[in-house]
Hints:
single chain; Aspartate Aminotransferase, domain 1; 39% helix; alpha/beta; 11 helices; four-stranded antiparallel beta sheet; globular; 420 residues
Amino acid sequence: MFWPQQSFESLKTAVLSALNKNASFYDHNIMGLPATYLDPHIFPADADFLSNAPFIRSFIENPNHIGLHTYDKSIPSFHGTQQLELDLLRICAEEIFKAKPNSYDGYVSPGGTECNIQAVWIFREYFKNKFGALQDEMVILFSEDTHYSLYKVCNILGLKYKVLPVDFNERKIDLDILNNQIKTLKNSGSLYFIIVLNMATTMFGSVDDIESISQKLKAQEIQFKIHIDAAFGGFIYPFTNPKSLLNFDNSVVDSISVDGHKMLQAPYGTGIFLIRKGFIDNVLTEEASYVEGLDHTLCGSRSGANVIATWMILNVHGSHGILKRMNELIEKTNFLCDSLTQLGIRFFRNKYMNIVTIRSDDISKEISEKYTLVPEKHEQNQVWWKIVVMEHVTMDLIQRFLKDISIYSTKHSEMNSISI
């Protein structure tokens, strides 16, 4: 995994050059596109600072990255910034997720939820087109810790699903239950399986064991496809765990999605969808005949500005800079966890992740709310409270939190001793 670090000045030059290669709404003869630049009363294009703010300028110029630029043709009006999207996809697919060149398709979406819908939509249509599968012969499998967007996916696409339980303490899928569930589903007529595995669940940062799970799937001799939801973990886990098997070097991985607006600190609305070549044709929208190159994406029109922001972030740090940032977060998380252990506080944490989830019995609601911790479930009895060690979570903040929880833990222990 390597891509070089570039200076802000060189990135600014590259972005402005890409924008100049686009057909600008300001000075080109554009009469057929159903779009224009942003409203100049709110977004003036002649502001002095724009010469040093390439992302803001791209936001104002409003390039539309409709279509799939890894595929064939794309609308030529925005060719300049489309090339930046292709380079962003290259870095993510080839450098981070170990794909071979020209072995993948993908696009920058509005976020991880769309990426999950896109993946399952593609595999549903793949099973229909290749095997003549019926809708009720397909089933989606995912763990109880999987992001709630999967329930949306199943509802929108009309697919049945089974939620796999996990061990309470280890947050791992129970392999025996998985095995028995597949047998039961096969006996009831399910022939085609779409499995969504996690590279860091939202609540726990837990990572599904793809090797053990794929062995169970292969042993059952079923048709299956695996999508990796790396919305949170995709820009940290491959760096902190170089032995990760959740990538395209693993033949059972068919698609991956990752959010730039989480660990990478890109603007909200930045998801990246990647899939092996040959699958995305199953969702080609031939009716989009006015779009050059046609369209394979769920959203259709999409902003080129977030593409540029994410591309700039990756390149201003380079692979070594991103690794350094993620390791710094892991060091802070290690300090937090070591301190919690010394205090006798129970928690779950994957050692390669920056999420720490504390048992509610060991922390007061007042402390949780003071530090804006996230509960597993709102409006119910809490079992877990989540901490995410992001860049703004300083050592000073961690130490203040630890001081409060230490005071609470001491008082709680004394009260329990008195009651006994």
